Structure formats: C-alpha cells, structure tokens
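Running this now, will post back.
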Amino acid sequence: GHLKKVARSETNKGKKISGVVKAKAPVKKAAAPKQPPVCQLQGNKWAIDYQFHPEQPITIEVEKRQAVNIYKCDNAIIIIKGICNSILIGNCKKTGVVFDGAVSTCEIVNSQSIKVQALKAVPTVSVDKTAGAQIILSKDSLDTEIVSGTSSEMNVVFPGKTENDDPVEL
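Update: finished.
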C-alpha cells in the first residue's frame, strides 16, 4: 500500500486531548437467545438449538443413520444415547456433549469451552475455530483421528493401556 500524505491540521499532534475517559457500560450477562429452544428430529437430523442454561441435561436417543446438530447452545449438557452417524457442535459455549459413539465424525466449530466425551468409538474428532475443547475418549476410541484447525486450549484425554493405568492427557 501507498502512504497517504496527511496535512498537519488533520493529525492529533499538538491538539489538546481531554483527559476524560468515559466509563464503559457494565458488562451484561449473556442474554438468552430470542429463538425458542429446539430439540427435535427433522428427517434424519436431530436439531438441538438455542439451549440456554437448561436445568436438566438434554437426552436424545439416536439411530445410526441420524446426524446430530447442536447449535448455539450455552451452558448445556447434551447426552446422546445410541450410535449416531455424525455430530456437529457449532457456535456453542460452555457445553458438554456425552455420546455413545458415531459412525463418522464429531465436529466442533466456532465454539468456546466445549467438553466432549465418547463412551464408545468415534473414528474422527475435528476441532476448528474453537477456544477450549476437552475431548475424552474411551478405550474403544484409541484409534480416533483428531483433526484440529485454528483452535486453542485443546486437550485430549484417553484411558491408560490397562484399567490400572491413569488416563493419558495430551
């Protein structure tokens, strides 16, 4: 880029700048989303959306051909019983997902402070644009491939080689 010439009168040099710093408005707690919470099966896709601080964990029962999409949830715990095809966690905050297993993948995108626990096998866990992801794998998912894009603070916990070994954290 080319630098543009700026006349002295357009700069702040020599101007008196007042020393008054306006206080920022107090930070409000996250407001509940305007949309009502959704938890329903639409065709072969479970939609779990806008769950904002639910009092109870949200539990669904799935089949192998079903995908689970978890979107814009905040401080929610979602329990997925049965093996589903895939899980997508998008735009969520402080959300925990416990699932039996997935045929293809568990994907976490654009989220913060997500905890995912696979009780059985999941071939791939992918984490992208996420700050703070904890992935807890079972002894059935020691072959899980973990793919991560632009993410920070990610740790993976999987069981030790025998039941007496401590879990291993990466």
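The chain is about 0% helix and 50% strand. More later if anyone needs it.
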